[in-house]
Write a structure and sequence with these properties.
Elements lengths: L2 H29 L5 H27 L4 H17 L7 H14 L3 H16 L3 H25 L3 H18 L20 H9 L3 H13 L2 H13 L4 H26 L4 H21 L3 H7 L3 H19 L2 H33 L1 H6 L2 H18 L2
Helix pairs in contact: 1-2, 1-5, 1-6, 1-7, 1-10, 2-4, 2-15, 3-4, 3-5, 3-7, 6-11, 9-14, 9-15, 9-17, 10-11, 10-15, 11-14, 12-14, 12-17
Keywords: Cell inner membrane, Cell membrane, Membrane, Transmembrane, Transmembrane helix, Transport
Pfam families: MFS_1_like
Subcellular location: Cell inner membrane
Length: 384
């Protein structure tokens, strides 16, 4: 198997499982395991905290001692073993422990594959975008399959589809991969040490950019954890839930294919401002009009609330930071904006959801509105 195909299938297999775990797991815990929304939120929030620390600390530790292929293979195997522990009926404590361990291990697969992709791009000249698009396809297919399966059977199908998906991943990642990823490269200069962190936050504008990224990505906590449950509570058929959740992914894909063309010369602050306004409008509309039709319509705004915010951060570190600081910036972004902020906001969002489902989404404006204010207050002074 050539390197391009290996990378494409790697993204496809991981994001197929990610398309099951990310949008459906909270709903599965409440419907199949009988937990309340707030209790499931505690479990998922703790899992996301574990995920942020494992991405920030455990992943660099492992890749400093093992090859990317070894890390991907053994985290896949361990993830599958942990997943099987979900099958028996379990108490809250047992579910809490399994979820925290699973969340600490399973997400490591993604940065390992992404890092392997960077090596293949540099050394073997593979096309990243071509292979990464297979990940989006895998995520989309997972949403459709889960929607169909839950409509035909019940939500227990979510667990078994996840087991099948990870089983396929274990089979694929146990096969020989690209030779260049079998060795342990020298990554001594890419570790995030105290000196690197200090220098990064001393860079003009970075603390503000990081705060904006944390706020805007964290504002998706209710959507990621309760989007499926919200639509289920509105009595939407499981098959159509999969289609509705896919709308956001499709607009995200469409945005990224055109972003360089339309936004490469746009100010970073303008992009963050548009993302923050789009995010605010999205969550307010879901609150004001609690219908499946409105939820479906607001899915288009995912291109702004997530896509533009993500693109703005990537543009900032590419244009404003020296090469030596990019790895540290990416580490902070993955750990704190993409994981920890969502984890922390999952706890209050769960309690708000039990008061009123729409209130959990409105609560996310506690992040998006301050982001608007921060941009307006800092864009002239910091000139970003």
């Amino acid at each position: 198997m050539n390197n391009q195909r290996w990378l494409s299938i790697s993204f496809l297999t991981f994001f197929f499982t990610w398309g099951i775990f990310l949008p459906y797991w909270t709903g599965w815990l409440t419907i199949e395991k009988g937990l309340s929304v707030s209790t499931a939120s505690i479990i998922m929030g703790a899992g996301m905290i574990a995920r942020s620390f494992s991405n920030f600390l455990v992943f660099p530790y492992l890749t400093a001692r093992k090859s990317y292929i070894q890390v991907i293979k053994w985290t896949s195997i361990l993830s599958l073993l942990l997943l099987i522990l979900y099958i028996p009926d379990s108490s809250f404590i047992v579910l809490f422990i399994i979820t925290v361990l699973f969340s600490a291990v399973y997400p490591i697969i993604l940065p390992a594959v992404e890092s392997g992709a960077s090596v293949l791009m540099q050394k073997e000249h593979v096309h990243y975008g071509k292979s990464r698009s297979f990940g989006s396809v895998g995520y989309t297919v997972a949403l459709l399959i889960v929607g169909t399966a839950t409509a035909l059977w019940n939500e227990q199908a979510i667990l078994y589809l996840m087991i099948i998906g990870l089983g396929i991943a274990v089979f694929f990642f146990s096969r020989p991969g690209p030779g260049i990823l079998q060795s342990i490269p020298d990554r001594s200069n890419s570790s995030v040490d105290k000196t690197g962190v200090k220098a990064l936050f001393a860079t003009k504008g970075f603390p503000v950019i990081m705060m904006l990224a944390i706020l805007l990505q964290g504002a998706h906590a209710s959507y990621y954890n309760y989007g499926f449950l919200y639509l289920d509570d509105l009595n939407v058929n499981g098959f159509y839930i999969g289609i509705i959740l896919n709308i956001a992914v499709l607009f995200e894909i469409l945005f990224f294919t055109q972003a360089d063309r339309f936004l490469s010369k746009t100010r970073i602050s303008t992009m963050f401002l548009v993302a923050a306004i789009g995010s605010t409008i999205r969550w307010v509309l879901v609150f004001l009009v609690p219908t499946a039709g409105m939820f479906m319509g607001t899915q288009m705004l995912h291109a702004a609330s997530f896509g533009i915010a993500h693109y703005a951060f990537i543009q900032y570190i590419s244009k404003k930071l020296p090469h030596s600081q990019i790895a540290a910036a990416q580490g902070f972004y993955a750990a704190f904006a993409m994981s920890l902020s969502t984890a922390i906001l999952t706890f209050p969002a769960g309690f708000l959801y039990e008061i009123s489902p729409g209130t959990a989404f409105l609560g996310m404006t506690v992040c998006s509105v301050p982001a608007i204010i921060i941009v307006l207050m800092t864009r002239k002074k910091l000139a970003y």
